[in-house]
Design a protein that fits this description.
Layout (H helix, E strand, L loop, with lengths): L1 E6 L2 H12 L3 E9 L7 E8 L4 E5 L5 H11 L5 E4 L2 H12 L6 E3 H6 L9 H9 L19 H12 L1 H14 L3 H9 L11 H9 L6 H21 L3 H4 L2 H10 L4 H5 L11 H15 L7 H8 L4 H21 L12 H5 L6 H6 L8 H12 L5 E4 L3 E4 L1
Parallel strand pairs: 1-4, 2-5, 5-6
Antiparallel strand pairs: 2-3, 3-4, 7-8
Length: 394
């Protein structure tokens, strides 16, 4: 049974929670708005069991009123099904300070079933169930009330068939003994650290875009800390204050006066005046006086820069991984992480054991796949065309 209306009655919430509490599997999705805010504003929560589906009006209900349902989201005996979990989990964390767990992400499951990396829900539904989701609702203003009937129908369809999709994927995963792997990968979306990124991690990522000396990096770190605090205070997107490239340039130029800030293109005008400008300049000054060291991984990045010859070799390695991905029905990122490509290319393994113990290749590839990759890396086999069309290892 489908409930084609927005539920805003606490009594209905209690009744729904009672039904969810006895389910083994529930599916959920969220609709939110974030174009002009740092924190996502959760508007609608879609939930389904194998028999019923509901649309909950989060904007009309307090956390206390929603608590019976929220308790289900953290019940360890109920598996939650979601597609592309990151955004939905971030909404739950921001709005209610919870993360759904345990979790099965159908996008992760699909990537281990040969259905591609980061497949969209619409394509997954069509591939697995032959169901086509309506299009044209990506720009919906979910804060509008009342929402038109076609919009409500679209929102419900996002979860109505999701458990069936998951069960189909489970059947495929069980054949390859990958269900536990899929659940392990999905569980990472229930880790708070994924959504609460330390300023140090952001600074490390930005510093890998160009060479930074100790002082540059120290100033960059302080500027990142300033922006992270300020966007939360104002609840605005990071780019509204200063895009990443602006912080990098500020760290290298190290302005010391408001006039320099005001002439800096890309910094929010409001942050270049008065007390706000003083806070930016204070961040620069703190960095200048800081003892912060350039992290080892940032320094190592320059050592890991590929030569032109290595880039050509890595292109061939990517083709090899794509072939293994197709053959073993697993997204290539689960075989070798993108950041491990160059270290793998440079590994020069003397044996398959060297390859396995490097930690650069997933053990889930199996003995035959590991042998094929080892043969390619050592030059025993190479890429060729079969019948002038299909790329093969020869």
């Amino acid at each position: 049974m489908l409930s084609l209306h927005l539920i805003a009655d606490p009594n209905e919430i209690n009744a729904i929670a009672q039904k969810l509490a006895v389910a083994k599997l529930i599916a959920f999705d969220t609709e939110f708005i974030r174009e002009s805010t740092f924190y996502p504003k959760l508007e609608i929560l879609q939930i389904a069991t194998t028999e019923e589906a509901w649309l909950i009006d989060c904007a009309a209900l307090s956390k206390t009123e929603l608590q019976p349902v929220l308790d289900v989201f953290v019940d360890p005996s109920i598996l939650k099904i979601v597609h592309a979990a990151h955004g939905d989990q971030e909404c739950l964390l921001s709005a209610y300070d919870i993360l759904a767990t345990p979790l099965f992400d159908t996008a992760v499951g699909a990537s281990l079933c040969g259905l591609g990396d980061n497949i969209g829900l619409g394509n997954l539904m069509k591939s697995v169930l032959g169901i086509e989701l309506p299009k044209g609702y990506a720009r919906t203003n979910w804060s509008k009330r009342p929402l038109p009937k076609p919009v409500l129908e679209y929102a419900l369809l996002d979860v109505k068939h999701l458990i069936e999709v998951a069960q189909n994927l489970f059947a495929q995963l069980d054949k390859t003994e990958r269900r536990s792997w899929a659940l392990e990968l999905s569980s990472k979306f229930s880790d708070r650290r994924l959504y609460e990124i330390p300023p140090e991690d952001i600074a490390k990522r930005l510093a890998q875009s160009g060479k930074f000396n100790i002082r540059d990096y120290a100033v960059l770190l302080e500027l990142v800390k300033w922006r992270e605090e300020r966007v939360r205070e104002l609840n605005v997107p990071r780019r509204w204050l200063a895009e990443d490239g602006v912080l990098i340039d500020l760290a290298k130029i190290k302005p010391t006066t408001p006039e320099q800030l005001q002439g800096f293109r890309g910094l929010s005008k409001g942050e270049a005046k008065g007390n706000n400008a003083a806070k930016v300049l204070s961040a620069v000054e703190r960095g200048m006086n800081s003892e912060a060291e350039v992290p080892a991984e940032v320094k190592r990045k320059y050592v890991l820069q590929a030569s032109s010859e290595e880039n050509l070799g890595m292109d061939l390695l990517r083709v090899c991984l794509t072939m293994l991905s197709d053959e073993y029905r697993i997204a290539s990122k689960h075989i070798v992480a993108p950041q491990s490509l160059l270290p793998l290319f440079r590994l020069k393994p003397a044996s398959i054991k060297d390859l396995e113990e490097s930690g650069l290749v997933s053990a889930q590839l199996g003995d035959v796949g590991m042998q094929a990759l080892f043969s390619f890396l050592t030059g025993t086999t190479g890429l060729g065309l079969s019948n002038g069309k299909k790329v093969t290892l020869k």
